[in-house]
Amino acid sequence: MKKPQLQSLKYQIWDGLAAILAYTSLFVFRKLVVEAEKFGLSNLEFSTSYFIGLFMIPVFWLTVYHITDFYRDIYRRSRLKDLFYTFNSSLLGSIFIFFALILDDTVSSYTDYYRGFLVYFSSHFFFTALFRTLLTTRTAYRTRAGKIFFNTLMIGSNAKAAELYAKLESSSNRNTGHRFVGFVSVDNNIRFLLEKNLEHLGNHLDLPKFIREHQVEEVIIAIESSEHHKLEEVLNLLEETPVKIKMIPDTYDIISGKVRMESMRSIPLVEINHQLMPPWQMVLKRLFDIISSFLILIILSPLFIIVGLITKLSDKGPIFFKQKRVGIHGKEFYMYKFRSMVTDAEKNGPQLSSENDDRITPWGRIMRKYRLDELPQFFNVLIGDMSIVGPRPERKFYMELISKNAPHYRYLQKVKPGITSWGMVKFGYASNVEEMVERLKFDVIYIENMSLLNDIKILIYTVIIVLQGRGK
Question: Most buried by CB count within 10 Å: which residue of 89, 294, 342, 423?
Fold first, then answer.
């Protein structure tokens, strides 16, 4: 039975204790060595500043670990990777502490600075690595003993799947922690080789349902070469689930370096990573969204009032327009805009706007040209439904139409939709489904290359487009 919250708490408690011990080591060294050499006396008195540091230092370190997502996937820890991570984070964090706490010390020689840094870094690395290694070793032992396991679903039903299952269940590989709940087929054969070992849950089209019902944490794809045309469909269905996805590699995967060293402990498998940006970049991206949206809503509030008044006076309908859009992981939300069309614009059903659309009001055309109608979406960003940069959100009606032409459209739901995007910069607004599919290519490129640097690049392009009035 796994309790990830409790396991994460254990790591945090021991990390906090390691931070306290390291800070205390530094404090004692400064009092008994540095000050003794400087003033000729040693006085180990725990002052108020020590107790303030005793609270602030662990908070600093735990914040660093949370930002870098160290406590994610807490049961699948690698002792060697943890050791390298601990060394790097201890070094960088200690440098920060050095400039914050040690550099202003009164010392008899500059070598005292180096000694102080070495004491703090070495003690922090030692205590943190020691406690983490003990916790990770205990977890590995419990996994081998079968006390910790991961509900696993096999996708595939014949030779490859049966062979892989036999290898994973062999005595030499039982320490992986996989507990198979069944298998899912991608073809319509009456009999399957894997039926001898596992329960056949059904067809791959019902994958999300099986994953929910059996609380699946990991999926292993082991389909035959003749079934590879179904792979994209399988991956699209899995995009909406939180499971880890692994599959048997081919020769190209091995040569290209997708099969990592840790895979050699048992069976070489390629992990399809859901993580698009490093955790620290995701945190900074969200912080940027919150701070920027808040400032824009405050600073541009006079512009909001002016645009709202003109919208109301130019056309007697409501100032704002809200519409359901599909966001991250398929979750629907209301997106807000200044109304740029007549009030009954969709009396005949959902319609996309075009360049010469007579439903757009005269003032609406001006707003669209400079994208003033998009300003209320900063409220959507502030509350977390959207990001400033990300693929434009669509209605469920059009999402289903696009998915028929481009099944990989659901790939866009891996991230929050945005006010502006690479697709909007390079292609602009789409007036039909074909153009939506064309714009999709640019948004997929963005997702595959997500970074803060690319977000800044897209924002610069967007500002240029707005200032030049090239919106439509």
Answer: 423
Tell me the pLDDT tens digit for each residue of 76-94: 888 888 898 899 999 989 9
Q: Quick one: 439 and 293 in the same domain?
A: yes
Percent of the chain with pLDDT over 90: 33
Average pLDDT over residues 381-408: 86
pTM here is: 0.64
Q: State whether 123 and 81 are in the same domain.
A: yes
- Whether residue 281 contacts residue 290, with contact meaning beta carbons closer than 8 Å, is answered with no
Report the C-alpha gap between 330 and 309 in whole angstroms: 35
Which residue range forms the structural domain that includes residue 432? 279-467
> Are 138 and 171 in a shared domain?
no
Alpha helices in 33-78 (DSSP H): 35-39, 48-67
pLDDT for residue 261: 42
Domain membership flag for residue 428: yes
Q: Which residue has the higher pLDDT, 9 or 235?
A: 9
Can you spell out the DSSP letters for 181-248? EEEEESS--SS-GGGGTS-EEEEGGGHHHHHHHTT--EEEE---GGGGGGHHHHHHHHTTS--EEEE-
Give CA 147 to chain center in angstroms: 29
Select the more confidently predicted residue: 289 or 107.
289
pLDDT at 37: 67
**How far is 388 from 286, CA to CA, in rounded Å?**
9
Q: Among residues of the chain, what percentage have pLDDT more than 70? A: 88
- Reference 361, options 318, 302, 304, 301; nearest CA is 318
Q: In angstroms, rounded to a whole number, what is the distance separating the alpha carbons of residues 113 and 105?
A: 8
Co-location of 41 and 135 in the same domain: yes
CA dihedral 111, 113, 119, 120 (to 10 degrees): -170
For 300-334, the DSSP string reads THHHHHHHHHHHHHHSSS-SEEEEEEE-GGG-EEE
CB 180 within 8 A of CB 198: yes
Contact 253, 221 (CB under 8 A): no
**Hey, what amino acid is at 162?**
A
Residue recorded with tokens 């080591």: 25
Instruction: Domain count for the chain, please give it.
Output: 3
Together in a domain, 378 and 361? yes
Where is 252: in which H helix or E strand?
helix 251-255
In the numeric block, which tokens belong to residue 279?
A: 């955790």
Measured distance CA(193)–CA(449) in Å, rounded: 40
- Answer yes or no: do 322 and 404 share one domain: yes
CA distances from 261 to 69, 89, 265, 414 (A): 22, 22, 8, 27
Q: Which two tokens stand for residue 265?
A: 């402990």
Nearest CA to 156 among 179, 187, 185, 199? 185
Q: Which residue has the tokens 């820890």?
A: 77
- Cβ-Cβ contacts under 8 Å for 68 (sequence gap 6 or more): 89, 278, 279, 280
